[in-house]
Design brief:
- The protein has 105 residues and is mainly β.
- Helices cover 9% and strands 48% of the residues.
- Strands 1-2-3-4 form a four-stranded antiparallel beta sheet. A three-stranded antiparallel beta sheet has the order 5-7-6, covered by helices on one side.
- β3 and β4 form a beta hairpin.
- The two termini are 19 Å apart.
- The relative contact order is 0.19.
């Protein structure tokens, strides 16, 4: 599946502008990948957890480990809103976000 460009935001730790591309884990779970200006993947923002049911427009986001800083900047970009919902997975929790209406996509 060819990725769809869905937005961009500025990071403040050496990568500058990054771009968000959408793929799909399956029809109900979009995979959001953060890419450099040159198209190299930097991180996968989302995570797939089998059996989790999301509402339309919701994303399951990995905000721990290597994603901690880039996920925080993605949220601060205004492209996303945190729903406050959490899904336990091992010793951490995945956050449930959705696209902000005002987001650039």
């Amino acid at each position: 599946m060819k990725p769809k460009l869905i937005g961009k935001f500025q990071t403040n730790y050496g990568m500058g502008m990054v771009y968000l591309s959408a793929y799909c884990y399956d029809p109900k779970f979009p995979a959001i990948v953060i890419n450099s200006l040159h198209g190299e993947p930097i991180a996968t923002l989302t995570v797939y957890i089998e059996g989790v049911v999301l509402q339309d427009g919701e994303l399951l986001v990995k905000t721990w480990s290597e994603n901690e800083r880039i996920a925080q900047q993605a949220l601060e970009s205004g492209l996303f809103e945190d729903t406050g919902k959490r899904v336990p997975t091992g010793f951490v929790e995945a956050q449930v976000w959705r696209f902000a209406d005002k987001g650039e996509r």
